[in-house]
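Researcher: Here's a chain I'd like modeled. Treat it as a single chain, no partners, no ligands.
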Amino acid sequence: MTQEELAEALFVEKSTISYYENDKKEMRASGLAEMARVLQTTPNYLLGYTYSDDDFLSEALSLLEGIKDETIKKVLLAQIKAASAL
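Model: Modeled as a single isolated chain. Structure tokens:
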């Protein structure tokens, strides 16, 4: 994605994207979250924090972060614990 395309998706000027890339301007948390959404990634990834180089773990984490229902979270956690004991 080009700076122009990203700027359009975020409704900001292209120069703003350049400032962010070159650490000339701080980004608000809400802007970072929106940029992550547009780029289909996580704010942690954009900030340089990665959990693992393992593609499986990265994909699983990405999917798990999207789950909002607390009941589903509990069921999945129990299943993961059971599977890890095998």
